[in-house]
Amino acid sequence: MRKIAVTLICVWYPQSPNFNHFLSRNHFVYPPNTTPADPGTTPNVMTLSEEDDKQAAEKGIKIPSDDCVITWDQFNEHIKDRDWINVYAVNNEQVTGELLKYSTIWTVVSDTVIRRRTSFWDSIVKGCVYGDNTFARIHDSRAIFVSQTGNLVALPTRNDYYVSSNPEKYFFYFVCIDNTEVVDGRCPSSIILVMIKDQRENDLNDKGVRGGPIRMNDIPWSEIEADLQRCHRQSFIDDTDPKVVWTWRNEECPKPWTPAAEQGK
């Protein structure tokens, strides 16, 4: 089994006691090979060119073109009001800490504003962190947003993109934290979160935690890999930074819409 090096971004937001970070590059993580959560089902594919690797390392992850981003109508049909979890991530900043077992729900506030609530395990504070942010749509038809308000990385330079050719099954939550740093269509401070639906059917416990092994049934890994290469010039099969990291590990936190999460903000 190949070793996958971990990378992590930490972003501090001065108006909040919480901070944001988005993955780490400083130790090795072995993706589990058990079912039902089986990253071993990802396809074996050709790696990208050395030039792609060089550009990613020097300038950051490629910002997706508009045709890679889902439409606003698709966001409303497939993304909003559903229970999403992050199982893999890619980023390109070397910092400390990790964002793990990331769980999120998006709701629509208006035709131009969305709300994102999230919870995840933070390796620096050794506990759960909760986010509640709003974002304003900045494209007339695509799901591209600018940060508006909130307690985690609510920066005016932040742009969020929702990337997928099959948003019913998965999407990439791509965050460019500082769009003023973009060079040649690449964002140095950025992250890709590979999001899938939480397919577990068990009820939440009294702490708001779903618990138990996640299920990864009918995930179209070949489509995910194709989108990753086409839209971001990244690959699951890669031994250079930035690279893909398995993130569903460590302690699971209360779902972000539960009373426990509300009290933890």
Protein architecture, described:
This protein is an alpha+beta fold and 265 residues long. The chain has helices at residues 50-59, 72-79, 221-232, 259-264; strands at 4-5, 10-12, 19-21, 28-29, 61-62, 84-91, 99-108, 113-122, 127-137, 144-150, 159-163, 170-176, 186-187, 190-197, 244-246. The protein has a single domain (4-264), classed as Calycin beta-barrel core domain (Lipocalin). The chain contains four helices and 15 strands. The longest helix is centred in the C-terminal third of the chain and has 12 residues, at 221-232. The termini are far apart. Residues 1-39 and 42-46 have low confidence and may be disordered.
Topology record:
Layout: E1 4-5, E2 10-12, E3 19-21, E4 28-29, H1 50-59, E5 61-62, H2 72-79, E6 84-91, E7 99-108, E8 113-122, E9 127-137, E10 144-150, E11 159-163, E12 170-176, E13 186-187, E14 190-197, H3 221-232, E15 244-246, H4 259-264
Antiparallel strand pairs: 1-4, 2-3, 5-13, 6-7, 6-14, 6-15, 7-8, 8-9, 9-10, 10-11, 11-12, 12-14
> What structural class do the secondary elements suggest?
alpha+beta
CATH class wording: Mainly Beta
Regions with pLDDT < 50 over 5+ consecutive residues?
Answer: 1-39, 42-46
Describe the main β-sheet briefly.
Answer: 8 strands, antiparallel, barrel
Distance between the termini: 39 Å
- Shape call: globular
CATH topology: Lipocalin
Rg over alpha carbons? 17 Å
* Number of beta strands: 15
What strand order characterises the main sheet?
6-7-8-9-10-11-12-14
How large is the count of helical segments?
4
The share of residues in extended strands comes to: 25-35%
Helical proportion? 10-25%
The CATH fourth-level homologous superfamily: Calycin beta-barrel core domain
**Second rung of CATH, namely the architecture:** Beta Barrel
> Would you tell me the overall average pLDDT?
80
Q: What is the string of helix and strand elements?
A: EEEEHEHEEEEEEEEEHEH
Count of all domains: 1
